[in-house]
Amino acid sequence: MNCPVCGGDCIEDAPTLLARLPHTFAPCPDCMGLTYDKRAPPPDLSPAEPCPSCARRFIDEVFAQIYRVMAAEGDLAGTEPLGAAGTPLVHPGFAMRSAPYLPPSSLVLLSRSVGERTAARLVAEVPEVRGVVRAGAGTPGVRDTDAEPNVHALLAGCDVRADVFSTRQGPIVIYKQQSVLHVEFPRDRDEKILSLERRIREQRPRTFVDACCGAGTLGLAAARAGVPRVIANDAWYAAAYWTACNLRVNREFLGIGEVTMHRSCDDLRRRPVARDPVPVATASGAQEIEVYQGDLRLLPAVLPPEIDLAALDLFEKADAGKIEEITRAWRARVGGAIFIP
User: Fold this and answer.
1) The pTM is what?
2) How would residue 322 be classed by pLDDT, with cut points 50, 70 and 90?
């Protein structure tokens, strides 16, 4: 599966990625790394080289080199703490017991301070850096179909990366382009997934709808739990595309055959925020799974007549009035049980 950002082989199927997961960030016997205080500037030392045996390097050493390049380019004054360089988003991300030793091309840097010249240097000079993203003012995505979407800026390299989430039936792998989708840090306990699994055990739904699906985590968790029909939808093009992509990535874990893609990433990007729902991907077999891009308020027009369970994981849960309005309309037009993760 070609990467829609760089055209490379960034996207692996889930079994392939999971097979190498236990050793991805583990040090070899020859690895050495210094732990730095993230609340202070890094010490004035020459950058440590990657391990000659396994090509990995401890994350603090990598971040110290990133910090020094940013300081040399004027993005940092050199007096800020090490953590001011940005947020490390490792690829693949999963719940870790210890700090990682990074192999080449395993880190996307998310930073508010980084400039374009610095980003180009980081991708060229720091082997662990696969992409550099300058963070914008808001969380990537769209709050409403009438609102302007928020995005970060990919300055250099490729920002496609994967996260691995645990479910009771086994892991799921969620790829995303990090400049256009929000960050999710996998943890030992994912409360949204646990909440969904409780509802599935209690209600045994035949059909589940994830009406604001993001990159597809809840929809795929429901499919992994064996729900016969799953429908995922999001108004934001990147969410719909990566949900469809993740359906293909995880298909060996599901009761489906080939995934039919109805629209490419380029097609969806031309209409970044959709109102009338359009099909993005479908798959069938022992399970049926559909992905749409559209406004959740218009989604009932394409839904089957009986929906047992729906998740309304709205972008902005603080707006109680809006949540009540949407859930009331959903109950009137669709029915079935609703939960807000």
Assistant:
1) 0.95
2) confident
